[in-house]
Amino acid sequence: MLLGQSAPTAVADGETLQGAALPGGVSVFRGVPYAEPPIGDLRWKPPVPRPVGSGTRPATEFAAGCMQTDRLTLWTKGIATVFGTADQVDTRPLVVSEDCLYLNVWSANVGGRDRRPVMVWIHGGSNLNGEGHSSWYDGAVLARRGVVVVTINYRLGVFGFYAHPALTAESPVKASGNQGLLDQVEALRWVRRNIAAFGGDPNRVTIFGESAGSIDVMHLMAIPAAKGLFHRAIAQSGAPMAAMVPLGLAERQGANALKSLVADSSAPLQSLRAAPAAAILDAGTKAMAGGQLMGPIVDGAALPEMTVRVFEAGKQHPVPLLAGSNALEMSTLRTYMPRVEQTPEGYQRWVSQLLGPHAEPVLARFPVTAAEQVDRVSLEVFSDVFFTCPTRLAARATATLGQPVYLYYFTRVLPGGEKLGAYHALEISYAFGNRIGWMPREPVDDRLSEAMVGYWTRFAATGDPNGGGAVAWPRYDQAAKYLELGSTISAGARLKHDVCDAVEARIRPTWARAG
After folding, report:
1. What confidence score (pLDDT) does residue 1 get?
2. Which of 186, 329, 427, 484 is catalytic?
3. Which end of the chain is more exposed for a tag (fewer CB within 10 A), N or C?
C-alpha cells in the first residue's frame, strides 16, 4: 500500500475484498478465490462455484500456483543464458498447491461510474506449467491504459486434464478430462458476476492468452458453456490444428498413468483421491515423459468435437479475433521437434516425410544447399507448421463468419539474440507493457511495446485495434492482410500462403480420421 492511501475495496460474491494501491491510481486485488478448492472429493471434478459469502477478505498476497514442476523456470533460464543474464532469472522455489483456483484483478477504476473493458489473461506453459501471478503478466500498465485486467490460475497437467473411466462414470454428463478448461469457464463466470465492482464492463470482456493459453482461448471459442461469457478474443502463438485425443483413449491412458497409486482396483477413485498431491504429480510427470499427452480432449460434453472441426464448420462463438505468431517460435521449443539430419539431403527427406506430396512449395520457399543452413531453416519451417499456419486457419474461419479479424506476425529480434530470433513468448512483455529484468532492451523495444499496448487495449475496448495515430492495421479479410510487429511496423498480405496451403492440405485428412 502507498503511504497515505487507504486500501481499495470491492465486493465480490458477498465478500468485501481489501486490495492494495499501486502508483498511477491502480488498485490490485491478489489471490481472489473464484471456486471451491479442488481437493479431497473435489479432485478431478468440475469446479464448484463458491457460495455467496460475507465479511472481509484481505486480497494483498498472491495465492499458490497450481501443482507443477519447475520446468518453466528452467526453460526461461535457458533463454536468458543466451543473453548472458541467467543470473537475473527468478529461480526461487515455486509455491504450489492443489488449492489454487484464484485470480487477480488490476483496475484504475474501482468505484468509478463508467465501466471499462475487461481483459482476462490465460497463461501458457503447455497446460502443464505457469501461474497467473507471474511478473510477466503484471496488469498495472494495461490498467493505466484504461482496461481492467484479470489473470487466473487453472488446474494443470494430471490435475487439470485427467480422464479415467471411473471419473466418467461418476460424472452427471458422463465425461472427464477437461478440468482445466472448465476452471477457465468458471473464472469467466466469476468475471460476469463481479467485475463491475472493480469498474469493469461485463459486456466487454476479452479473453487473451499465449501458447497453450492461446490454444485454450480458441477452445473457449468452441466450448458451448462459454457462450456469452466473452466478447472478443486475442490468441498469441497458438491455435488448435492437430487431431485431438477422444475420451475413450484418454480414459485408458489416464488409468494407466496412475495405476501404481491404486490400492483397490474395485474403487480406484478412492485410492487416487487419497493419494498425496506430490505423488500424483510425480506419476503424471513420468507418464508424460513416456509419451502420454496431457491436454484438452474431445470429451463429448465440454468439447463435443475437435476444436478445429468447430472452426472449419463455422460453429465457434462469433467474436472479433486478434491473433498471430512469432517468426521463429521453435528456436526455444526444440524438444518438440523431430530430429533432422544436418545435411541438405536429410533436410529434404524430413520435409517430404512431414508434408508428403505437398512438400514441394515448402522446399521451394525454404531451400537448403549447405549443412550449416539446415538447423535454422528447419526451425523456421516447423514454426510455420505449428504456429503460423494454424493461426491463419483460425483467422480465415473467423473472418468467414463476418467477424473482424486482425492477424499479426511478430519479428523483433533482441540485441544479442540473433541465434534465437523472434522466439516463443517474446511478445508477451511487449503486449503487457512490462520490462523483464533479464531481457535486453533498446529504445525500439519501448516504441514497439507502446504500440502493441495501444493495439491490444483498443481492440479490447471496441473490437478494432486501430486509432491513436498508430500504423493502420488492416482487417485480415481484406486480401489476407496482416501487420508485421518488429523493429518497424508495417502491413503485408498473404503471410506464408504457399507453406500454409501445403500444411493444411497435408493435415486436413487427419481430422476426418480422428475421433
Report:
1. 40
2. 329
3. N
Q: What is the pLDDT of residue 166?
A: 95
Are 157 and 137 contacting, i.e. CB atoms less than 8 angstroms apart? no
Q: Cα(306)–Cα(329) distance, rounded to whole angstroms? A: 24
Instruction: Examine the residue annotation and report whether 211 is marked as an active-site residue of this protein.
Output: yes
Q: Is 424 a catalytic residue?
A: yes
Do residues 468 and 458 touch, judged by C-beta distance below 8 A? yes
| Active-site residue, selected from the candidate residues 251, 424, 429, 449 | 424
The domain tally of the chain equals: 1
329 is catalytic: yes
For 243, which DSSP code? -
pTM of the model: 0.96
For residue 313, count other CB atoms closer than 10 A to its CB.
10
Residues of the domain holding 207: 9-470+480-513
Rounded Cα–Cα distance for residues 50 and 296 (Å)? 24
pLDDT of 2 above 50: no
3-state SS track over 445-514: HHHHHHHHHHHHHHHHHHCCCCCCCCCCCCCCCCCCEEEEECCCEEEEECCCHHHHHHHHHHHHHHHHHC
Do strands 116-122 and 148-152 pair parallel, antiparallel, or not at all (unpaired)?
parallel
- Given this model, what pLDDT does residue 501 score? 94
* pLDDT tens-place string over residues 349-398: 999 999 999 999 999 999 999 999 999 999 999 999 999 999 999 999 99
CATH of the domain at 246: 3.40.50.1820
Nearest 5°: the CA angle 164, 242, 383 is 130
| Residue 90 lies inside a defined structural domain of this protein | yes
For residue 4, tell me if it sits in a domain: no
In angstroms and rounded to an integer, the radius of gyration of the C-alpha atoms of the chain is 22
In a domain, residue 285? The reply is yes
Q: State the angle between helix axes of 277-289 and 247-257 in degrees (0 to 180), rounded to the nearest 10.
A: 120
Q: Which residues contact 53 (CB under 8 A, 6 or more apart)?
A: 13, 14, 15
Among candidate residues 64, 91, 254, the one with its CA nearest the CA of residue 162: 254
* Residue among 126, 211, 214, 378 flagged as catalytic: 211
Report the alpha-carbon distance of residue 183 to residue 157 in Å, rounded: 13
DSSP-based three-state secondary structure for 20: strand
pLDDT digits (tens, 9 = 90+) for 163-213: 999 999 999 999 999 999 999 999 999 999 999 999 999 999 999 999 999
- Asked if residues 473 and 466 have their Cβ atoms less than 8 Å apart, the reply is yes
C-alpha cell at position 195: 467485475
Measured at the CA of 230, the angle between CA 484 and CA 64, to 5 degrees, comes to 90
Give pLDDT, residue 5. 57
If DSSP codes are grouped into helix, strand and coil, which group holds residue 67? coil
pLDDT at 255 exceeding the cut of 80: yes
For residue 451, give Cα distances in angstroms to 214, 346, 410.
21, 42, 13
Instruction: Report yes or no on 1 lying in a domain.
Output: no
Note the pLDDT of residue 421.
97
